[in-house]
Amino acid sequence: MLLELFQLSQRCLTRQQAFPRRSIIHFNGLATVAADKKTRIVASTILNRAPILTPTPHPFEKEYYAYQERIARSISSPLPTDVYFKPGSLLERRFALEERQREKDAFGQDFTPMIGLPVEDVGKGGGKSLADQLEEEAGLEEKPQQRTHRADVEKDVRSLDRAGERNLYLLVKKDRKKDTWKFPQGGVEKNEALHKAAVRELKEECGPNMDVWMVGRQPIGHYEHPYAADSTKSEYNGAKVYFFKGHILAGQCTPDDKEIVDFAWLTKEEIQKYVEPHYWEAVKDMLSDF
Amino acid sequence: MRAALYPPSRLDRSTAPTGLHRPDAPAALERVITSREAHETIQRAWVVFSKAKRDAREAELKRKFDCMKRAMDDLEKTDGRLYRIATSKPDPRATDEETQEMLKQYRGVEKRAMEARIEGLFPRDLRIPTDTPSRDGWNYDWKPPLKTSEKSEGF
Amino acid sequence: MAQAARKAVKSASKAVSGASGSLYSPLTYTPPVAIKLGPTHASRLRTHYENSLADNLMYLHYQHHDANYTPPLPPKKAEHDPNNPYSIGRSPPRPRGNKPLRPLATNVGGRREGEGPSAKQLEKSITQLKEIQLHIMSKDALVSKALLLAPMFQLRAITGSTRHEGGHDSSLGVEIIRGRKNLPQWRIRRGVPCGVKVTLKGDKMYELLNVLVEFVLPRLREWNGITMPAPSANRDSPSMTGGVVSVGFKHEAVELFPQIEVNQDLYPKLTGMHVHFVTNERGRGSQNKARALLSAFQIPFIRK
């Protein structure tokens, strides 16, 4: 150990002039920025509209759940109706009717369940029949909305109600020949953080009328590409794009018609059809399949 | 209450309150589980199906993780200041100076709305998916909360 | 809900041996196959976690390290050398600094810095809800055991949990808590029952969380959220490093559970309870991560 130290010190003394001047000036700890290359640092936002609807179950899943429901029914104790319903009330009679039907659906039409449901006494003088009363009630109940929206039928890619089960991502169109469709992006200013730059560029390009939540401060991916020799940004030889994930919670994109001329909310497969192949290779692993 | 929680015909002698089966449980079970082989086949098919789903999900998470790790490795080499800010984690229990300065620009309802968004926690507006959509659909008319300086006189 | 209630409340009048002649004896009957009940429907909250929350939590909590980072080693336990003549006849030394050992912090992707985690390791390292514990301590029960039946009934109604339900041996139903020590100032004696608890895992856990978030929390009066500890609180305390978020509810909150609200007369004495949300996180910052997960399930948090 001592011998090694001595040998190291001898080497240092004899190699005084061997280090080139440039790297001594620019060495500053862990992160070194090479002085001759100038790469433009760009922050981009992948704005995600999370699913609004639960996924449609696979047919096998539906059948399996129904099977397990039947098993659960066969080993469970029946509901004590005298505890949960007022005796003779409409709710109790309706429950008994539906429960008898559910038992028959589960075990067969010829199965007589022994679960102590109240008997439906027909011929109760005065008042409406059970079927009429239930029909009346059904009309008053609010019907749930359809899972397929008008935007799905019309294939309106600007709508945020389309494809409720899927993850949608915001893609914006720039007015140029190549690389037209991209995620919103822009350069980072001096003394600015990357995640703040991503939000600022998003608001500048797509308008302030979007409630955006950024997921943390870390980039979720990056893409380095060189600029062409004749590009407008002549002081840079290339750009490094850092992608940040954000969620849109309300509002809509309003393009400024200067940088951005159009926008679309697309699923992962649709994005592949819109963007250039080299860009797709960079971003595909950051997007959700579902 | 005691008889309901500890029925006299229960199977085990544990202190935990236990449940009962329905009186015609054997007959009902016979209708549902037609044969041992059928039941076991269904269970095996479910295991295979859920494993396929799980593997797909885990593979997607791994792809996203690798993407993020590569980006962070690259950022570390590119710019130290940006890297340090990116790796810093905010403490949801406290507000830092920048956020406090930002909150001073708001008052009243708008201030409470801005205070409710705590960095490090999820927003309450990120709703859990439902089986059917809401009646009004997506809120397209959202406007950002006005700062005190932006509000007109008389409000 | 009807199914849960069906499993939960058993009426004595529907006893198996009574009614229309004995059909079978549960003590001697064996079903055709060993039944282990699977899911009867897709769990909405579990699907939301798997599809939307898991990757967001991964992005939020991933801690990147420099290339020459080495993870901190666990604190060295004081060694007892039996050959040292000083230590013969003396008890083993206590750990240095007299500080209790705390669990090491977890990181997304695990702590191996080599090739990186496998897909399975990665999925396991992301913040997940493991179990929810409901706990009621009853001072009256210290005097008379029979007074534990009301809290037991209440927890049974809320959770629908039974011992070994559906053939799952891991579910223990409503358990009785007995005193661990003799504490005369609170009249607790060792072995005497003083409370009840129930632990929920899996789909049942998500069902309870769903009911809490949709029915109970929005209707609580003068409750804006779970208060977070002050920023100055010791970050190495057991509560901050356990990965558990705890909250207490009074009996007014218990009345809002739909299983109880539908017939409140059946529950003569409703008591408040503690709810503990247990996650898989440990170590420094784990309670912050647990709070992030719960906030994604629409549980509000407020600063002190």
UniProtKB/TrEMBL annotation, chain A:
Keywords: Hydrolase, Mitochondrion, Ribonucleoprotein, Ribosomal protein, Transit peptide. The keyword Nucleotidyltransferase does not apply. Belongs to the mitochondrion-specific ribosomal protein mL46 family. The lineage of its organism: Eukaryota, Fungi, Dikarya, Basidiomycota, Agaricomycotina. It is found in: Mitochondrion. This is Large ribosomal subunit protein mL46. Residues 140-155 have a biased composition (Basic and acidic residues). One of its GO terms (molecular function) is hydrolase activity. Residues 147-288 form the Nudix hydrolase domain. It comes from the Eukaryota. It comes from Serendipita vermifera MAFF 305830. One of its GO terms (cellular component) is mitochondrial inner membrane. The keyword Ribosomal protein applies.
Automatic annotation (TrEMBL), chain B:
GO terms for cellular component: mitochondrion. It comes from the Eukaryota. Transmembrane segments: none annotated. GO terms for biological process: mitochondrial translation. InterPro entries: Ribosomal_mL40_fung (IPR042831). One of its GO terms (molecular function) is structural constituent of ribosome. Residues 1-24, 125-155 are annotated as: Disordered. PANTHER family: 54S RIBOSOMAL PROTEIN L28, MITOCHONDRIAL, LARGE RIBOSOMAL SUBUNIT PROTEIN ML40. This is Uncharacterized protein. It comes from Serendipita vermifera MAFF 305830.
Automatic annotation (TrEMBL), chain C:
GO terms for cellular component: ribonucleoprotein complex; ribosome. SUPFAM superfamilies: RL5-like. One of its GO terms (molecular function) is structural constituent of ribosome. Keywords: Ribonucleoprotein, Ribosomal protein. InterPro entries: Ribosomal_uL5, Ribosomal_uL5_C, Ribosomal_uL5_dom_sf. It holds the Pfam family Ribosomal_L5_C. GO terms for biological process: translation. Residues 193-301 form the Large ribosomal subunit protein uL5 C-terminal domain. Belongs to the universal ribosomal protein uL5 family. This is Large ribosomal subunit protein uL5 C-terminal domain-containing protein.
